[in-house]
Write a structure and sequence with these properties.
Strand order of the largest sheet: 1-3-2-4-5-8-9
Strand content: 5-15%
Helix content: 25-40%
Structural class: alpha/beta
Shape: globular
Radius of gyration: 18 Å
């Protein structure tokens, strides 16, 4: 049996009685949520940047898990954070957004609000090759036992527009530091699991009643704005949509990450202000700007 290479990378930042669970994306790492986590913590929130099952290790570690393991991780992370707070907000990047929506469907009584960043139901951004756009067929292909060793490699600009940030994160990723920057490739069986998650969540979006802040790069290189519009149309809770004009897919680390922090803190704070169970109002950091 291959030894696990997984390194613990989750983080807990204690603050007030309102908490935010942050969920990273497929092949990603809690590190991609750390900027937003620190900003929300400065604004007064308790923040838990959770780690999905099978992540922050080797590709073999990831392949031992599937979407139900990832969803179970989210439920366990939310349950852990709920023990420390009175209100729970859940925010995710890319596939993490889909997992946040899944929790809002499965545990509606737990979730006071959602932050949906670069939501990905379709890989249809401008850097996605034609063949990769057919990845929705992978559950069928991999289910037949075919191409289990294949993967789609990450490619320039790696979801990041800011050159300085891109050099640092892409360098760590290509250097094998998966706990710091994620894996450099998406194994086909893991992408198949991602699409099974989408098949589970997408038909149930109308069951999402929690208020949702939808933030998406207008020029997203991985998942087009079509993904954000799908959520707007399908969920039944109130939504606010913010399009960012100077970022690519990884909006939690890219150049407009302060806008992600500012809009999220403002959105969650307004929900708290209207809650029958009032808690101490989080501080909105003066340096945080809104889009």
């Amino acid at each position: 049996m291959t030894q696990s290479m997984i390194k613990q990378a989750d983080f807990l930042l204690r603050g007030g009685r309102a908490g935010v669970l942050l969920i990273h994306g497929l092949t990603g790492t809690p590190a991609e949520m750390r900027f937003v986590g620190k900003g929300l913590n400065r604004a007064g929130f308790t923040v838990y940047g959770m780690q999905l099952a099978g992540h922050c290790g080797s590709e073999a570690d990831l392949l031992k898990t599937g979407w139900r393991d990832w969803a179970r991780s989210v439920t366990e992370g939310a349950d852990r954070l709920r023990r420390e707070v009175d209100h729970l907000f859940v925010a995710g990047l890319s596939m993490g957004s889909v997992l946040a929506l899944n929790l809002a469907i499965e545990k509606p009584q737990w979730v006071d609000g959602l932050g949906l960043y670069g939501s990905t139901f379709f890989y249809d951004g401008w850097t996605i090759p034609r063949m990769a756009r057919l990845s929705f067929m992978l559950p069928l292909v991999c289910g037949m036992g075919l191409f289990k060793q294949r993967r789609f490699m990450e490619s320039f600009p790696y979801g990041i527009k800011d050159e300085r940030v891109r050099m640092r994160i892409a360098g760590a990723m290509l250097d094998g530091q998966s706990e710091a920057a994620g894996l450099p490739g998406n194994p086909w069986p893991s992408l198949a699991e991602f699409h099974k998650l989408v098949w589970h969540v997408r038909p149930r979006l109308q069951e999402v009643r929690a208020p949702a802040l939808i933030m998406h790069a207008a020029d997203d290189d991985i998942a087009s704005v079509r993904n954000a519009r799908l959520i707007e149309r399908r969920v039944t809770g109130p939504t606010e949509t913010v399009l960012l004009n100077d970022s690519y897919h990884m909006i939690t680390v890219d150049g407009e990450r302060d806008k992600v922090i500012g809009r999220s803190a403002d959105f969650f704070t307004r929900i708290l202000a209207n809650s029958p169970l009032r808690v101490s109002r989080p501080r909105i950091a003066a340096s945080v700007s809104a889009a």
